[in-house]
Amino acid sequence: MPSTTHLIVTGYRAFWSVPGKGSIAIRYFKEGRSYTKAFENLSADDYSQMVDMLRNEKPIYFNESRGNVIMTGRVGQWEPVGEEES
After folding, report:
1. Which residues contact 79 (CB under 8 A, 6 or more apart)?
2. Which residues span the domain enclosing 38?
3. DSSP state of 79
4. Residues in a beta bridge with 37
5. pTM here?
């Protein structure tokens, strides 16, 4: 079971604006309530990497105690190398 600092991301919205800054909002639940965390003013590289992770990995966790951290894999376990997503 994830700790309260590692919360499962259940959705996201990605925004790109000219002249080249991105924003991503993620949604997660804690104690039955929905919360949103915004990552703003992302560079093209950061935006691209974060969208790729959100599209292709599962599960994704938000680390609430660190504020700006999302991560893959199951809490307390390493993700196997070469594992294909199902």
Report:
1. 72, 73
2. 6-72
3. P
4. 26
5. 0.79
